[in-house]
Amino acid sequence: MPTYLIIGGSSGIGRALVDQLLTREDAEVHVWAREQRDLPGTVRFTPIDVTDEASDLKSAVPEEVHGLAYCPGSIDLRPFRSLKPAAFREAFELNVVGAVRCLQATERVLKKGGSASVVLFSTVAVQRGMPFHASIAAAKGAIEGLTRSLAAEYAPAVRVNAIAPSLTDTPLAEKLLSSDEKREASAKRHPLNRVAPASEVAAMAAFLLSDQAASITGQVIGVDGGLGSI
Ligand SMILES: NC(=O)c1ccc[n+]([C@@H]2O[C@H](COP(=O)([O-])OP(=O)(O)OC[C@H]3O[C@@H](n4cnc5c(N)ncnc54)[C@H](OP(=O)(O)O)[C@@H]3O)[C@@H](O)[C@H]2O)c1
């Protein structure tokens, strides 16, 4: 029975991933987030704030984990001059240190089965320089480094990959997509002239968490409408 732990699986891309994993035969899906929201009853939910040093992650770890995705993240787009050092620390704490804590808590169970998979989240703004993205690009750049380092350290027992989305239609991006004009302008910035729904980014995560991706590790895969490379 495949067991998945989706950290931040209660909203956006993580929630779409949970729905896709639940369609797999005999899948057991665990979610950690601060709020349960409208998760299906079959999901095993544990309330956890990954930025809270006091939260006891180890006692919430399932006995086995075959696939783990770390989805918490932030969007704080401001000119560099108005990003105080605290904003960089905050972005790093949620996007990077939270992932580190979750991975250290689950390392033993991930390695146990000999073929687990981890998915982390970067952003297109690491590959392609964009104004106002300094704090999030710095934090997600660290995620890309972490992805390759852990892929090397954990091979062959655990694969580690990252997805670098562009703007995706989730609650996190709500303000950036709050009118038809904003949606259209955002779509036009992408060579494929569209903003991805959460389900498309989740589908890449679901693939990376499957045995079909058994030869893929240490990669950062863009799901970005072509923005990162064209
Ligand atoms: N959406 C985009 O446009 C976009 C673009 C590029 C990259 N990304 C990246 O893709 C990933 C997923 O983004 P999304 O848009 O799906 O985000 P989202 O809709 O905000 O969902 C984030 C999930 O993480 C949980 N979470 C947030 N803070 C947490 C904390 N302190 N402790 C535990 N759980 C926490 C949230 O639940 P609670 O709030 O209940 O805790 C929620 O389940 C992120 O890493 C983001 O940076 C997104």
Automatic annotation (TrEMBL):
Protein name: NAD(P)-dependent dehydrogenase (Short-subunit alcohol dehydrogenase family)
Transmembrane intervals: none
GO terms assigned for molecular function: oxidoreductase activity
Keywords, alphabetical: Oxidoreductase
Domain Ketoreductase: 2-166
Keyword Oxidoreductase listed: yes
SUPFAM superfamilies: NAD(P)-binding Rossmann-fold domains
Annotated Pfam families: adh_short_C2
Species for this entry: Neolewinella aquimaris
PANTHER family (alphabetical): DIHYDROANTICAPSIN 7-DEHYDROGENASE
Repressor among keywords: no
Family to which the UniProt record says this protein belongs: Belongs to the short-chain dehydrogenases/reductases (SDR) family.
Taxonomic classification: Bacteria, Pseudomonadati, Bacteroidota, Saprospiria, Saprospirales
Gene3D superfamilies: NAD(P)-binding Rossmann-like Domain (3.40.50.720)
